[in-house]
Specification:
The structure holds two protein chains of two kinds. By secondary structure, chain A is an alpha/beta fold. Chain A has helices at residues 12-22, 37-46, 60-72, 83-99, 115-120, 137-154, 164-168, 219-236, 257-272, 290-297, 313-321, 348-359; strands spanning 8-11, 27-30, 53-56, 77-81, 103-109, 131-132, 157-163, 170-173, 202-203, 241-244, 251-254, 277-282, 284-286, 302-305, 327-329. In chain A, the strands form three sheets. Chain A has a seven-stranded mixed beta sheet, with helices on both faces. A five-stranded mixed beta sheet of chain A has the order 10-12-11-14-15, with helices on both faces. In chain A, helix 1 (12-22) packs parallel to helix 6, helix 9 packs across helix 12 (348-359) and helix 10 (290-297) packs across helix 11. In chain B, helix 7 (197-216) links the parallel strand 7 and strand 8. Classes of the chains: A alpha/beta, B alpha/beta.
């Protein structure tokens, strides 16, 4: 199967799959779980045609393990699941950070309850994984390619935070390979060729010091090096944010991902009615666009945060605002009995009413 | 009668001298931090010598689990990918699928493979993955100080089975080689031991054959290697080889269990 790069109607899952292939992804592994399943199906169909491999793993533990092994050979690789499967992967995701292995990880989430999992993880220790949260299918195709670029540049896992809407909404998008310039030189990946050279490569979450150099593993030193790398990475990735109507806003509404699109529609309607209301959407959840958000607050007297959870990103908004103005949580848990986090949650009339309560 | 122990009451009359350097070429540093009497360095040497003998050195990648043998993971002149406890076979799968021309082997213990990650090796074998898994089986978690694993023999004393492993309370040992041999994807399955010279020689042949089977693309290959752990067994170091024979070997009998490529 060939990958069409011209604009065509694609379901989000397929668009993300096409974007992964366009970004050079040649290894994908996964375990079916809604709404991640369709991405796995598309990768299974598309990768063999471009000389890649898609593995049906026996669980999410092995899915991330297989992707870890493939990524260790320098092959652009990805895996993913939904929140529950991501929970199973956390141990490996942390160790991938300590081993400094690039990997793109999808969380096709159910509603937005995985915000903390995504931004506070992964798993144990002091690792952090950058998180990109697209709002719709066209943005997802761009951020998917950016994720591969960032993974290679920083030798780190990168998380793409999607949801059921993103997986199943069809949009007309073109998926052309984006040129991010030359990839950094690969002086770390494994193919066996340095075995027997006297300097065989070691790719380990415990460190890279061989016993014939300074006596071997020093975990304190290694974790210190990893922490410094994490700081440099989070400082080096430009935080992304969308803002609208913030100049004279009295109330600022913050949302991310698919719900942000509905919140933006509600804000736009209220603006048309004359309300002094602004909109802010963090696109990178880590690094969180704290400075840009603080600037956007301007003279607003209150900040309202809408999420499909019990209030998680609201923590980051409060940290960014640092007590200058009150931050109210106006979101709610998904009402979807199926657990997939879909309608009737995102109703622009409901959202408008919630925002009006804050407007007073 | 020959003294079984070197006299230690007084310094030796002659200083120690190096008769020959037995360090395998693919080992960076000869000395190691494992206990005296440990079987794992013997198994490790056999694996390294087999890689060398196959003329596959510059395609070799070792994937290590977590256990005492992890002390070798940063001490080899072989590329090493360090895995999590139990997870080496899935990493090996990813490596081999992404780079089919490589010679990929895992080094794991019984705790790593049979306790933490049993489904990994079973599925990797069932898929007929062209990789070779080596399991160093001493029937205990050696690195934590001698605790029961899934391969511990009935009656065997460990730190958390002080009165011996009891089937009623702790269940029965898992014979993982026997399980794997049942799977169609497994092309070669053998169980060796390193507690005497004859067993070491036989085990070396098994290791070499397992790697050959991978090179021939016949399917998954597997060698379980029974190793001594006098520290984790709470026996005197010189007693450990016999303890292996009397305790582990009756449960996990050495021998070739399967070789689909063997000439008949």
């Amino acid at each position: 199967m060939t990958v069409t790069t011209s604009p065509q109607l694609r379901e989000g899952s397929e668009a993300i799959a096409d974007a992964m292939v366009a970004a050079g992804c040649r290894f994908f592994s996964g375990y079916p779980m809604t709404p991640f399943t369709e991405v796995l199906e598309h990768m299974a169909a598309k990768l063999p045609g471009v000389g890649g491999t898609c593995m049906n793993a026996e669980s999410e533990l092995e899915a991330v393990g297989m992707a870890w092994g493939a990524a260790a050979t320098g092959t652009p690789s990805a895996t993913g699941s939904t929140g529950q499967g991501l929970s199973l992967m956390q141990e490996s995701l942390a160790e991938l950070c300590y081993a400094r292995i690039p990997l793109v990880v999808l969380n096709m989430a159910r509603a937005q309850g995985d915000y903390w999992q995504a931004t506070r993880g992964p798993g144990h220790g002091d690792a952090r994984i950058p998180v990109l949260a697209p709002m719709d299918v066209p943005e997802a195709t761009e951020l998917t390619q950016l994720a591969f670029h960032l993974a290679a540049k920083w030798r780190s896992p990168i998380l793409l935070f999607g949801d059921y809407y993103l997986a199943h909404t069809a949009s007309s998008v073109s998926v052309a390979p984006h040129d991010y310039g030359a990839a950094p030189a690969d002086d770390w990946s494994l193919d066996g060729s340095t075995s027997g050279s006297g300097r065989a490569r070691l790719l380990s979450p415990l460190g890279t010091t061989k016993r014939n150099e300074r006596g071997g593993y020093d975990l304190a030193q290694h974790y210190t090096n990893c922490a410094e790398h994490t700081d440099a990475m989070l400082a080096g990735i430009e935080p992304m944010i969308e803002t609208a109507y913030t100049d004279d806003a009295d109330v600022l509404v913050v949302a991310f991902g698919t719900p942000a699109k509905y919140v933006r529609a509600a804000v736009t309607r209220l603006r048309a009615d004359g309300a002094r209301i602004g909109f802010v959407r963090p696109i990178t959840l880590l690094p969180f666009p704290s400075e840009a958000l603080a600037r956007a607050v301007g003279g607003a007297r209150v900040v309202a945060v809408y999420e499909n959870n019990t209030g998680q990103m609201v923590d980051d908004v409060r940290l960014a605002v640092a007590g200058r103005v009150p931050v109210e949580f106006i979101g709610r848990l998904s009402l979807d009995g199926s657990g997939f986090g879909i309608a009737p949650d995102l109703d622009s009339g409901y959202l408008r009413d919630r925002i009006l309560e804050v407007l007073g | 009668m020959t003294e079984r122990y070197l006299p230690t009451a007084a310094p030796p009359e002659q200083p120690a001298r190096l008769v020959d350097d037995f360090t395998p070429t693919l080992l960076d540093v000869g000395e190691h931090s494992l206990c005296p009497g440990c079987g794992e360095p013997i198994a490790m040497r056999a694996i390294l010598e087999a890689i060398e003998s196959l003329d596959a050195v510059q395609r070799a990648i070792g994937v290590f689990g977590i256990g005492c043998y992890t002390a070798f993971s940063n001490n080899l002149d072989v590329e090493v990918l360090q895995a999590l406890h139990g997870r080496a076979p899935s990493l090996a799968t990813g490596v081999k699928r992404a780079k089919p021309n490589t010679l990929v082997l895992t080094v794991q213990g019984d705790g790593d493979m049979v306790n933490e990650g049993l489904q990994e090796v079973l599925h990797t074998a069932a898929r007929g993955e062209r990789v070779t898994c080596f399991m160093l089986d001493n029937g205990v978690f050696g690195e934590t100080g001698g605790h029961m694993t899934a391969t511990t023999a009935l009656g065997q004393r460990t730190k958390n089975t002080l009165d011996g492993r009891d089937a009623e309370q702790h269940g029965f040992p898992i014979r993982v080689s026997t399980l794997i041999a049942e799977l169609e994807g497994a092309a070669y399955v053998a169980r060796g031991a390193v507690n005497n010279a004859g067993n070491v020689a036989r085990t070396k042949k098994m290791i070499r054959r397992a790697l050959e089977v991978q090179e021939l693309g016949l399917g998954f290959s597997f060698v379980e290697i029974l190793t001594m752990c006098p520290t984790g067994w709470f026996v005197d170091t010189p007693e450990a080889p016999d303890y292996l024979t009397s305790t582990l070997a009756p449960v996990h009998a050495p021998g070739v269990l399967k070789d689909v490529g063997a000439k008949t």
